[in-house]
Structure formats: structure tokens, C-alpha cells
Write a structure and sequence with these properties.
alpha/beta; seven-stranded mixed beta sheet; six-stranded parallel beta sheet; 11 helices; 28% strand; binds zinc ion
């Protein structure tokens, strides 16, 4: 069968590999139909000194497919069912896993496509407990965006930042995969959304998604505009995933007691923050990574109810790296999906 392997930093190869064996007890075999790309894939593609992994490595962390076969004891899936898969192998035994909070697993086996072989292959065996059914009416292309893009945002906004209807939120990089989802989810509960983009064409698209105010961060200082838009009060929540030197400016956008939730650092992993400001203004900084199983189920329900992902582009498996290039060059608006 075909599998797309990272064989060296920035080098992918479409290889013929052995198909997986018949699924074991508690496992299902999935025929992959779509892999959605995230910034995580770009980190892995560029190579990260701290990531423990062995090359060649099958890429792909976020995917959907159809059940091809089931192992002994699996009663909740049958061949042909449409599914998505959790983006990491977790232990299923620790307290966090037993509560469905797999993103806090104490014995995590690795992130798919990053530490261990991922989903960019025709067939994969997974533990059935890490597989989630796709509701009727949702395409496998759209479903592929649920486990990471939608799930991560759901976890950030509602479990961590506890975003409430009527609040004001600043969503950074509104054209990114997760930024576009965050705008949709916040608007869906009646929040006011301020978002940042890097060019005017994206500003139009962000407005079409429902953003109330769009700031071109290349031509305006987002913290100044945000304070002006909120009559100097600041926003309730900042949705952050950019990091770098903009991080402290994001804190300045918060109202007293406001919450900043972050899941990424695309502009750099270090930032200087003013501690006086942090405690005097009683800011809450919340780190967020991945999603619970419930977040993914809730995300699929939202997609089924009409909150479909914005698809930037679709590529065949052989052009996975062209999809990554769109994300790296920040041309992207929405999700890049690789279809099998
Ligand atoms: Zn666990």
C-alpha cells in the first residue's frame, strides 16, 4: 500500500509499504480518505531537534476514513462506517484517559505523524477507543478537520478560556485553520470577534466568516486598535497561537481579569512578559494542547449542524508538501486537506 514518509528534514517520499495485519483485539482497521494539515505538520516537516522520532516516519496527524475491518471485541463499529481518529496514541488506562481527557494522558505514546507513524497511508490499525464515528451528512473531507482544528479550538475556547455568549474575543491569525474555526465558534454563541490578518484580501474573507472587526497586523498595531475598538477596556479573551514578541502585546489587549489561551507559537517559542502587568491586571494565561474525546464529538456535531470548515485547498497525497508550503508561506485561508 502507499504511505507518505518523511525521510529527512523537508523531504517526503511516497513509498510502497506492507499493509497492516488483521486488526487485533480492540482494534479497528481504517481506510484513510482525507488528511488535514496543521502547523504541527510543518514543525515536523522542518525537523525539530527536541522531537523524539525515528525516520522514515509516516506523516499526517489529523484524518478521516472508513472502517475496513474490526478486531475481536469491537462491537461499536462495522465495515464502511465513517470515522475520525484521535491524533495521538494514549494509554487508555491512566486517570486522565479514563475520564476521556486523553490530551492529559500520563503515558502518551506519541503524536501521530510527529513522534510515531501517522495517517498519510492507505490503511492503519488503531485502538477502537481512539476512533470516533462521523455523523450522517458530514463529508470525510470536512470530518478530517474535526480531531485537531475543531477539537483544539473547542478545548481552548470552552474548556480552558470558558468563553461565554456576549463576550468579546480577539482571534489571532483569523485566516489560519484554527483561527477560522475560532471565529465561527465564537460567533455561533454570540460573541463579538476581533481578528487579525496579514493582508486585505484575507480581511474580506474574515468579515465574510462573521468577524466584527478585522485588523491588518502588517499595517496597524493590533493592540492599539483592539483597545480603541473596546473603548480602552480590552477584550475578555485572547485566542493566541502566534507567540513571539506579539505575546505581550496580546496581554495588553485583555481587560482586567481577562483570559489569554494559547496553543501555538508560530512566530517563535519565547516571549517577554511584564509580570507587574500580569498580576496587577489579574490576567489568566492558559496553555492548551489537543482535545478531549468529547471535544471531537462536539466538533463533529457542530459540523453536522452546519458549522463546516473553511477549506483553503485540496491536494492529492503526492502533493502533501505543496499543502505545507501554503501554510508556511501564510497564503492559507482555512484548512488544507489532502485527499486519497
Ligand atoms: Zn493515559
Amino acid at each position: 500500500m502507499r504511505a507518505l514518509q518523511l525521510i529527512a528534514d523537508r523531504t517526503l517520499e511516497l513509498a510502497e509499504v506492507l499493509a497492516p495485519p488483521t486488526p487485533g483485539a480492540g482494534e479497528v482497521q481504517i481506510r484513510i480518505r482525507a488528511v488535514a494539515l496543521n502547523h504541527l505538520d510543518l514543525w515536523g516537516y522542518r525537523g525539530m531537534a527536541f522531537a523524539k522520532r525515528k525516520l522514515p516516519l509516516v506523516v499526517g496527524a489529523e484524518a478521516s476514513g472508513e472502517i475496513a475491518a474490526t478486531g475481536a471485541g469491537v462491537t461499536n463499529f462495522k465495515a464502511g462506517d465513517k470515522v475520525v481518529m484521535y491524533g495521538a496514541i494514549t494509554c487508555g488506562q491512566c486517570a486522565a484517559c479514563r475520564e476521556g481527557r486523553d490530551n492529559l494522558c500520563e503515558n502518551v505514546g506519541g503524536i501521530m505523524g510527529f513522534h510515531i507513524d501517522g495517517f498519510a497511508r492507505e490503511l492503519v490499525n488503531q485502538p477502537a477507543r481512539l476512533v470516533i464515528p462521523v455523523p450522517a451528512g458530514v463529508s470525510l473531507r470536512d470530518a478530517a478537520c474535526a480531531p485537531i482544528a475543531f477539537g483544539t479550538v473547542e478545548h481552548m475556547l470552552f474548556d480552558n478560556a470558558k468563553l461565554k455568549p456576549g463576550e468579546t474575543i480577539l482571534v489571532h491569525a483569523g485566516g489560519s485553520g484554527i483561527g477560522s474555526v475560532a471565529t465561527k465558534m465564537a460567533k455561533a454563541i454570540g460573541c463579538t470577534v476581533i481578528t487579525t490578518v496579514g493582508d486585505d484580501a484575507k480581511a474580506e474573507k474574515a468579515k465574510a466568516l462573521g468577524a466584527d472587526h478585522v485588523i491588518n497586523y502588517k499595517t496597524e498595531r493590533f493592540e492599539g486598535v483592539t483597545r480603541k475598538l473596546t473603548a480602552k477596556k480590552g477584550v475578555d479573551v485572547v485566542f493566541e497561537h502566534v507567540g513571539g514578541e506579539g505575546f505581550n502585546a496580546s496581554l495588553l489587549c485583555l481587560k482586567r481579569g481577562g483570559r489569554l489561551v494559547t496553543c501555538g507559537a508560530t512566530a517563535g517559542p519565547t516571549a517577554t512578559i511584564n509580570l507587574m502587568q500580569l498580576f496587577q491586571q489579574q490576567y489568566k494565561i492558559l496553555g492548551s494542547f489537543g482535545a478531549s474525546m468529547r471535544n471531537i464529538r462536539d466538533s463533529l456535531s457542530k459540523i453536522a449542524a452546519g458549522m463546516t470548515p473553511i477549506i483553503d485547498s485540496e491536494f492529492p497525497l503526492a502533493d502533501f508538501d505543496k499543502g505545507l508550503a501554503r501554510i508556511e508561506s501564510r497564503q492559507v485561508f482555512g484548512k488544507v486537506v489532502v485527499l486519497f
